[in-house]
Each structure stands twice: as structure tokens, then as C-alpha cells.
Amino acid sequence: MSISVMASPSYIRSNQSALRRSDQREKQIDKEINDILGKLKNFLGDIRDGRPSIPKSSSLYKFYSERLRTYLLSRYMTPLPLIDHMRARRELKLVKSIRRKLNRYKLILRETDKSGVFHIGPASDYERKAIEYREKTGAYEELTSNPFNDIICAATQLLNQLKSIKRISEWQRLKMMPDRKKTELAYMYFLPKAHKKGTPLRPIINTIHAATTAISKYLDQSIRPLFDRFARSTTIVDGVDLLLQIQKYIADGYFNSSTLFITFDISNLYTMLPQEESLAILAEFLQTHHCERINGMSIETIIELARLVLQTNAFVYGKKLYRQIIGGAMGSAFTLTLANIFMWKWERQAILPKLPSHEFYGR
Questions:
Q1: Which residues of the chain have pLDDT under 70?
Q2: How far is CA 351 from CA 234, 338, 360, in A?
Q3: d(Cα 19, Cα 40) in Å, to the nearest integer?
Q4: How many Cβ atoms sit within 10 Å of the Cβ of residue 41?
Q5: How many structural domains is the chain composed of?
Q6: Which structural domain range is residue 204 located in?
Q7: How many CA atoms within 13 Å lie on the side-chain side of 270?
Q8: Eight-class DSSP state of 31
Q9: What is the pLDDT of residues 61-87, one digit of tens each?
Q10: pTM (two decimals)
């Protein structure tokens, strides 16, 4: 069953923690201040790009912290008007009721993939589809031991080695280096595709705190702009871009009564990419467009880093440990770019050579 949220107005209370104890709210304020200040000091203390840095000992941070605390206190601690307080209690009661029913009937309530609705389904149905997905793709292998330490060591050793032989700079090493205190194994969850027949599941691997996330993000930041530039002629940015390209096609006189509009969908793209072949295609893409060095890194270095990201994608699902052996994690920044480059190769081989020069193709 799906519940649409598209037609409903957005609703966010001004004080979302009004029903919590004051000491709990104060702890939340302290946590948010420490988190914001930590990120701010790291960002403003970075002297790259010619921007002047602000030392972490600067009194400006204390001034900002006091102003921030004043603001957060007003947001967290200001009493609600009676009508809003009653509404908050009513909504809390409703949420608790929903949770009880989900637990009692063993249901899962989850936002769907792309459709903007919530989907309610039996937990057993989710698990059955998850098992079928793993068996169908063959993209995951179950592990018998926790690979966390091995992955941390592999990432650290590779980055230190590349720095020692001057294939990456010190700031690049620090940018990609995992912080052991903040690192944890990724975990998998599924989003239901309510817009497709049978409501299949899309696997998402949450890699926010994974050991190779910083490497994945840096590779994506370095390579994605190149792909966007070199593949622009076959890229549909959004609906407006598609309409503009169709308008040009019509204006050029190619549109007629026999014109066909054809769409296709690639199922499970992220779990069908052969890892080594994808890396070879990545190297070919960079060589084809004369990108022998990117941010000072050679193609060989980029491939080594990308291989580490792909081959150390371990995660938790349920109470079991898995590693992805085909493709990359949907949820990892670099995976989308790698998949696009893999498709670039396929398009050059299977689509574009057979397409008349005046015809329009985009993805």
C-alpha cells in the first residue's frame, strides 16, 4: 500500500523537541554546537585555494559559539503556545500508535524510490525480495568475519604509500584519509520502487562513515566534471534540457509522422558492472580525452584508488556481513560516475555508430 505525500503541504513545527525533558534538549544543543564548530574550524583552518585561514584558537570561534548557543536556546527551549503544544502531543501519540502497529503486524513503513510516497508492506515480503535480489544479481558474498580493521588498514597503507612515492600530495592524503574514530561499516537497506510492477526493491548502501568514503568523494569530485563536459552531447540534464533538444530537432526539420520515441531502462546497473572491466574503461575514458593527470594524479594512481573503493565495499545487512563483488555501492559518490563512464563505452559501441548523424540520442 502506498500513501501519497505530494499533495500535502510541508509541516515543520518551530520547536520539534518541545516534549522532551529540558536536560535532553540542552545536551542536544551542546552536541549541535560542537558539531558545527568542529566543521567550521576544519573548513576555515584550511589554507588551500589561496583563502586565508583562521587559527582554531581564534577568539572569533568563541564569539560565534555564544551567538549560536543563544539562537539554538531560543529554538529548542522556547515554550510552545497551548494550541501548538496540544498538537505536538496529539502527533506524538499518533506516531507512537503507528510504531506499535508496525511492530505488532510486522510491517515496514518506508519512503519509496523516486515516487514521493510512503509504502507500507510486510517485513517478510521485503526480506523475500531482498533474498531474491541477492540471488539474482550474485553481486554479494557473505563474510565470516568482520573486515572493518582490514579495510581501514588497506586504505591507510595505500594512501601513505602513494604519498611516500610522491604520487599524491600531503593535502590529498589528508583529504582522503579515514578517521578511525568516525569510521564504521556501511549498512544496506532497500527502497521500494512503487512506480514499477510488483514493487521491486532498490538496494542502497549507506557509506557515509565508511573507510573509503573520502576517497570515493574525492574521485567523484575530480572525474565527474570531466564526464559532464566530454559527454555533454549525449547527456539529458533535466526535463527542460530534453525539451530544448527536442525543439531543436523539430526546428531542424527532422520530426515527421514516422518519427519514433524510444525509451529503455537498464535494470540493476550498479550491481552488473564488472569491476576490473569498469576500471579499464575508466582508464580508456581518461586517455581518450587526454586527461593523463588529474589534480596531479596519474591515471594509474586514480585506478588504484578506484579499485580500493570497489573491492572493499563491505556492509552489514540484518545481522550478517557482506562484501560486494560485482559493481559498486549505490550510495557511494564515485559509483554513479563510474557507471556513467561504463555506459559511455557501451553507447560508443552499440548506439552511436548505428545512429544517423541527425538523429537524437540522450541519457
A1: 1-16, 46-51, 115
A2: 11, 19, 11
A3: 30
A4: 16
A5: 1
A6: 152-354
A7: 20
A8: H
A9: 999 999 999 999 888 888 888 888 888
A10: 0.79
